[in-house]
Amino acid sequence: MADQITPTNRPMARFVERLSRARGEKNSETLAAGFLLAATLIALIWANSPLGDTYQSFWHTELSVTVGEHGIALDLAHWVNDGLMALFFFVVGLEVKREFAMGELTDRSRAAIPIVAAIAGLVAPALLFLAFNPSGPAAQAWGVVISTDTAFLLGALAVLGPKKAARLRIFLLTLAVADDVGALAIIAFFYTDNLDVVPLALAFVGLGLIFLLRRLEVWRGVGYFVVALFTWVAMYESGVHPTLAGVMIALILPVYPPRRIEVERASDLTRAFRQSPNPEYARAARLGLDRAVSVNERLMRLYQPYTAFIIVPIFALANAGVVLSSETLKAASTSTLTWGIIAGLVLGKLIGITGASAIFARLKPSALSPGLTLSHIAGGAAMSGIGFTISLFIIDLALDDELLADEARVGVLAASAVAALLGWILFRIDAKIHPPKAEASLRILRPVSAKRDHIRGPVDAPLTIVEYADFECPFCSKATGSVAEVRKHFGDDLRYVYRHLPLDDYHPHARYAAYASEAAAAQGKFWEMADALFRNSDALEPDDIDGYARELGLDIDKFDDDIRTGDHVVRVEDDELDATSSDVGGTPTFYLGRGDKNLIRHVGPYDAATLIRALEES
Question: Which terminus of the chain faces fewer neighbouring Cβ atoms within 10 Å, N or C?
Fold first, then answer.
């Protein structure tokens, strides 16, 4: 699907491709949030300028598409809200499915707190809103306060949040995915009017055809596009909001780790093209590479930049242009609708998310990830009140009265600004009350766990070495000799714990090697594989690692499948998050000491004699 689209062959596509690369950098979310904020400000300036009349007239310009006697006529604002936003919700659906299949939500215990917090963050705002607006037309807008704008949230966190926010960011991302699921369900069940069964049945026929195309392994994007367009039109005619067609199509598309047989075929086709570069081999190689990666991940990679940098800003431009006249502001200042939205987004999100997290952590203290505190969650919960995109979207569905809609938009804009400010204040207060201590930054963040960690030696040994290492790092390979001498010196009084920290910028094979070690661990051979990887740190291509797996007698098919599963990815990333949150920037890094918690980072040489002396003095 979409294999004919190459994002580098047109000026706009090249521009979006550059933005897409920028999104992978350290402060990626700030860029998307900046585009959204700029579009919002332009809309407000345009609507309140001497040319303000042109704002309304432009977005109410009618555009019709007809085929024979049938057609759809909508103004530009509704083409954006009903048409372009279908692609936005399509990407949201892709992300939701991927997270459940291969991402953060695969580990149910890890996702428990953010999911519970997300549910509370849906319910509490709605209840607060209904307390202000128990009846009447305004009560229909209760869905405005349920959702969080992920782009604005992560952008605000990057700019206004604490420096060491890796764990909080993962928590908020997981919460946002669960939040999106709830918001989509609410749109589907509570904002659908005048249901027409026949077009709805045709929409499901379209979804069935997409599923059939998938089963028949049709890869050309044209077929999918035609059927998706048919499904969107049928959904529109049925009375169900057509953007939900995007979500349902996304949930049908498969997501899976790259399969070995397809990766090998892609490699063979690429090799054939390199040996005989001609159009036929070029096309075969491109299709082979596409098929090695799931449709879900390819389409996310293709469309996510377009939704983040073009579609969502256009949506903001079309919907955020509220005329902030004295009459509008006066009406909003006394409107229970406006204050209900502000209370729901600002207080409801803060109380719901923080309260649910505190109760869950009280009942199960181990559920909170290391380094993630309730005070940080409170700051993130406050920023979750930045509703914006889906809030503005639901205003269009819930309110027909334009005066009420303007009051609601003022509430969303005000709530988003207050929520960002409140989050910043809470983070500042926490930094004042709990200033970072040098000793704390040197203390290990996550205690050693016999259930989770890879431990060599007696699990209850009094002395402990924890090493954050990279299988391709030559210094880590040399350090294995020092560790072996230390283990021999202390015998059963020492346990050695290995944790992953692949340095992608310097060691391109280290991450794959880390996944391979976890795949070997699934067959009870972690340490044997780790030893083999360190012995051959200069030969860590996939074929090399497969050779080591065969030498260890591993089930190769299971090994290759396990390398690419979400469980191992999360395990490695979890170790990385711990290291990043502790300012560990290089390998090898050692923590030494007694027990599970009181381990201090070793600074200085890591030869055997130095490590032995440090352990004896601990």
Answer: C
